[in-house]
Amino acid sequence: MRSCSSRARPLAIVAAIIAAWLCCAIFTQPVLAQSEGDxxxxxxxxxxxxxxxxxxxxxxxxxxxxxxxxxxxxxxxQQRSSLGRWIRDFFVWLGQLSxxxxxxxxxxxxxxxxxxxLRMVKEIGSGGTNKALVVPTHVRDLDIRPESLPADxxxxxxxxWQHGEHRAALALLYRGLLSRLAHVHEVPIRDSSTEGDCLAxxxxxxxxERRDYVARLxxxxxxxxxxxRDPETDEVRGLCAGFDAALAGASSPGxxxx
Length: 258
Hints:
This protein is mostly helical. The chain has helices at residues 2-37, 42-54, 78-126, 153-162, 166-184, 195-205, 208-225, 233-241, 243-246; strands spanning 138-139, 142-143.
C-alpha cells in the first residue's frame, strides 16, 4: 500500500502541471491575438486627442463672465444736438457782446471824463464868469428881491433905528447886503446859505475894502440876532451911511473881484 501511494504522487504533479499549461495556452492566446489584431490607427488616435481637447473640463482655456462699463457711442438725436449747439452759440455770442459793451462803456466814460476836464479847465481859465447864476428870491425866510427893498437901504434902515425898531433896521441892512451880493456882485449865494457861508463867498468875490464892510455888518447882525446884543447907535449910523459906497453897482471902480 505504501508503494502505490508513492508512485501516484509524481503522476498527480505531472497532471497538474499539464493542466496549468493548457489553461494558460487557452486564455492567453485570444488576448494576444486581440491585442495584435485590434491596434488603433493614427486617425483613431488623432480623433481621440481631438475629443480630449474638446472636453471643457480638460481644456487649457476657460471662459469667464465679468462686468465692465460700456461706452455709449450711440449718436444722439438730431434735436438734442441742435439744442446743445444753439446754447453753445448763444454763450459765445453773449461773451462777444459783453466784450463789446465793455469797450463801448469804457469809450463813453473816457469821452465824458474828457468833456468834464475840458469844462473844468475852461471854467478855471475864465474865472467862472460864464457860468449861469441862479439867484434865489429868499435866503432863510429873508426876501432879497431888489423890488422888495427900498431904493436907499441905508437911509431907510437908519430911520427904523431912530424910531426904536432896532431889529427891523438890522434885518433891512442884512437883507440889502444879501441882495446886493447876489444881484449886483453875482456872489453865488443859495437859499440855504448861512451868515458864515455868505461871508466866505463874499471874501472870494469882493476886494478887501468891500469884504471888511460885509464882515462888520454880518458881525453886528449875528450878535444882535443870536446873542441879543444891540450895537451902539454910532456903529449903526456908520453901517447905514456906508451901505451904498461899500455895495455899489458895477459902475463903481473895483465893484467886482477878479
